[in-house]
Amino acid sequence: MYKDLKGKTAIVTGSSKGIGKAIAERFGKEKMNVIVNYHSDSAGAREAVDNIKAAGGDAHAVKADVSEEAGVNALLQAAAEHFGAIDVMVNNSGFNGKGALPHELGIDEWQKVMDVNLTGSFLGAREAAKYMLERDVKGTILNISSVHQQIPRPNNVHYAASKGGMKLLTETLALDYAEKGIRVNAIAPGTIATESNEDLEGSHQTEQLKKIPMNAFGRPEQVASAAAWLVSQEAGYVTGATLFVDGGMTLYPSQLES
Q1: DSSP letter at 238?
Q2: Among 119, 162, 178, 202, fewest CB within 10 Å belongs to which?
Q3: Residue 68: per-residue pLDDT
C-alpha cells in the first residue's frame, strides 16, 4: 500500500472489466476515490464501484465514450463534482479491432481502433493536463499500452500502430509537463488473462505460451500493482517510462530456438 495515495482521486477509463477494473479496484484498496468509466458494461461498472467501496475507497460510475471530447469531459466533470479533485488519469480504454491483412483492412476499422486507443488517450491526457495546470496539481497520467508498441502484431496493423503511437505520446507528454510536476508514464502489458483473451485454449494457448519466457499468462492484478506504484510517490522520479508487465515477452524468446 502507498500512503500518499489515500484520499486522492483517479479516473480510470474502460474500468468495468479486465485490466481497467483491476486498476480501479486496486485504487480502492489504496483508499482512493475512483471514477469508474464504462461504455456498455453497466453491471461490471457497478461491481467495480461496490468492490472499491468495500475496500475502503469511494467510487462513482460514469458511462462515456472516451474517443469523443464530450465523453472525456464528462469524466472530468464527474470527478470534480463528486470528489472535488483530479490527481490521477489512467487512459486504459482499448479496442483490439478485427484482425486482417493491411490490404484487406477497411478504413472504418482502422479509424475505430485509432479513435479509442490513441485519440482517446490523447484526449484524456490533454484534459487532465488542463485541469492540473489550472490548479497547480502535481498529478500523474498513466497510459495503458501493450507489448505491441514494441513487437509487431501480424494481421493487426491498426492495433500495433495505435500502441506504437502511445509510446511517443507518453514520452512527449512527459517531456512537455515535467517542469510542471506532472508525471506521465505507461504500462505495456503482455498476454493477460482477461475476457478479451478467453479464446486462448488448446493449441492456441500452447503457441502463445511459447512466446512468454515465464511460461504463464499475466493476471490483471499484476498490472494493477504496477499501476499503483507508478502513480504513487514511490515512483516520484519516474516520468516518460514504459513499464513492461509481460513475463519477458519482449525478450523475444523465439531467439532461443535458433
Answers
A1: -
A2: 202
A3: 97
Of residues 2, 38, 131, 159, which has the active-site annotation? 159
Q: Is the pLDDT of residue 188 over 50?
A: yes
Distance between CA atoms of 148 and 198, rounded to whole angstroms? 19
Q: Could you list the residue range(s) of the whole structural domain that residue 140 is in? A: 3-257
Cell numbers placing 126: 490533454
- For the chain, the domain total comes to 1
The CATH number covering residue 138 comes to 3.40.50.720
- The stretch 23-38 carries a mean pLDDT of 98
CB atoms within 10 A of CB 107: 8
Q: What is the pLDDT of residue 16?
A: 97
pLDDT value at residue 253: 62
The reply to whether 159 belongs to the active site is: yes
| Strand pairing category for 242-245 and 33-38 | unpaired
Laid out side by side, the sheet with 33-38 consists of 58-63, 33-38, 9-12, 88-91, 140-144, 183-189, 242-245
* C-alpha closest to that of 185 among 220, 251, 235: 235
